[in-house]
Amino acid sequence: MADRETAAPRQQTDADVRYLDPMEHVRTRPGMYVGGTDSKALHHLVYEVVDNSVDEALAGRCDRITVTLHDDNVVSVQDNGGGIPVGVNPDTNRPTVEGVMTKIGMGGKFGSGAYKVSGGLHGVGVSAVNALSDAMKTTVFRDGYVWEQEYRAGRPATDVMRVRKMKDGEGTGTMQTFRPDFTVLERNSFSYETLLQRFREMAFVTRRLTINLRDERVQPIPREVSFYFEGGLYAYVRYLNRNRRVLHDPVYVERDIEIVPEEKPAYTIGVEVAFQYNDTANVTEMAFANTINTPDGGTHLTGLRSAITGVINRYARKAGLLKDKDPNFSGSDTLEGITAIVSVKHPGPSFESQTKVKLINPEVQGAVSQAVTEAFNEFLELNPRDARKIVDKCMTSMRAREAARKARDLVRSGPSLLDSSTLPGKLADCSQRGENAEIYIVEGDSAGGSAKQGRDRHFQAILPLRGKILNTERARMDKILDNNEIKALISALGTGIGEDFTVETLRYGRVIVMTDADVDGSHIRTLLLTFFFRHMQPLIAEGHLYIAQPPIYRLKSGKHMEYIYPEAGLGEAEILARALKRYDDPSKVVVQRYKGLGEMNPDQLWDTTMDPGQRTLLQVTIEDAAEADRIFDMLMGSSVPPRRRFIQTHAKSVRNLDI
């Protein structure tokens, strides 16, 4: 048989090498500038514009920002800062405002002295927003006049125009109005709730700044909220812990730490920290650099953690609470049950990327550690009762960690969890692995039996759970690892949990929670979501967790049959009434209410809930980790009054449930 000819690779030509100007590059590679093209990136556009206004506040020129959501995905952000300069810029020989809006790398934060600290560092933010907008308009109030310029896809559509004189009492400032370009970004809508959480956070971090959020898409009366906080991070920690039993008043410090580098001018880093322990096992940490949330932490968070651990260990030994033979508390021991926030103001911060998810300045770690060590030492010395509570909690955490380590060692000493011979006996596995495989976590053996018969065994695995799993919000790791249902779940997924979690070993691309459409089913689903959020959070962050949507009714009229599914915001009675209106004679319609999955035949369960061609799955996401943490703590934690208030407040929305 003759050898098959192999085509020689084509040599690159001059025409293959392209030059993209910076604004074209933003549109071609938006992920480099706003982190992607999804809903998160869409909201990042708003954050970039608002961050510029916050920089004006940090410079002392602004104390009010108003964000307005209009129809057709239009957003406007207005501040009462100094206003972008509108005169001719010496570097470009064009109006400065035009350069700021249309040139990557042009900005007022490169050491000119107009901003001591700022979140915008590279002159990328607002010009990147302009590049990713179908249309944008900048309105500037300064020098006694109102100025405007319009843009299309980041290019000037008009010259900078002097529109009118400023009215009496009209202050300076800037208003940016833009509509995202959905030929570049995925089509999504701005979420009022997502922006609300973000702006509350920004107002806590930037004291004495008022941030208004107005949603004019809601008619006839737009919804609006305003945030203003005097207390800074001290107030923020108290807000986050308001539904928890706290052990003491927040530890708070605000200091300016002078940095004297070799052969460079000295400068100051502003450090503000607040933290407080509660009686849960959860860790809530937030870190900010120049008011920008850095979700991946960085050197400021590292400095906070190391200082807290060091201070507690030294105090415990000095007070005789840790004996000579006792090991030191680990970082996880001293952080369990803490709510901690650190914010730094740095004249030249360095981030890991344009989206500023992690701070990397090495000197920040020492500055934060110095400030926290001094303040925390003083707090423990002045409050010995609170100090004892904190040390006792660390001691309990250390014992639980040791018990959990022994439990994990027992698991690790056995065969690999990825070996099918060691998988839980009640798991009905599938033949595929990886992205195309999926596992249904099903409530009860009856529903599990129907699901096993109705599934496609090539790519669908079934794991039935017996009853309600342990509430992991209130349990320590040793108790969690001792629960048979949770052990079966961990074994089936193959990822480990907590600090041992590795998403790379996940055996299924989709993990689907499928419970009955009743109160018990909702409770089981909530218990599972609590477990995944607390101990397998990357599973959610990577988009692997889903909730199945089984029908709640079957309607049959003659030969015609249809299934009715839940609808967000509607009670079951209203959903059924709407469905029956479609029939000429609703009295002849036979209505079957599905209380449980086990009531369905295997073929019905496949047709309605498991067939990829017909089913509806809800993907579980985390828009705001701090808010999700608060909700889980309130609903599943040990404190009863906040949960009672929540139920009483939302009771109207559940009155019509058929329970």
Molecular structure report:
This protein folds into 3 domains: 206 residues, Heat Shock Protein 90 (2-Layer Sandwich), CATH 3.30.565.10; 176 residues, Ribosomal Protein S5, domain 2, CATH 3.30.230.10; 166 residues, Rossmann fold (3-Layer(aba) Sandwich), CATH 3.40.50.670. Helix content is 35%, strand content 20%. The chain contains 20 helices and 22 strands. Helix 3 packs antiparallel against helix 5 and helix 6 packs across helix 7. It is globular. The C terminus is likely disordered.
Structural class by helix and strand composition:
alpha+beta
Distance between the termini: 74 Å
Note the beta-strand portion: 15-25%
Principal-axis shape: globular
The name of the CATH architecture of the largest domain is 2-Layer Sandwich
- Poorly predicted ranges: 413-421, 653-659
The proportion of residues forming helix, as a percent range, comes to 25-40%
Oligomer: single chain
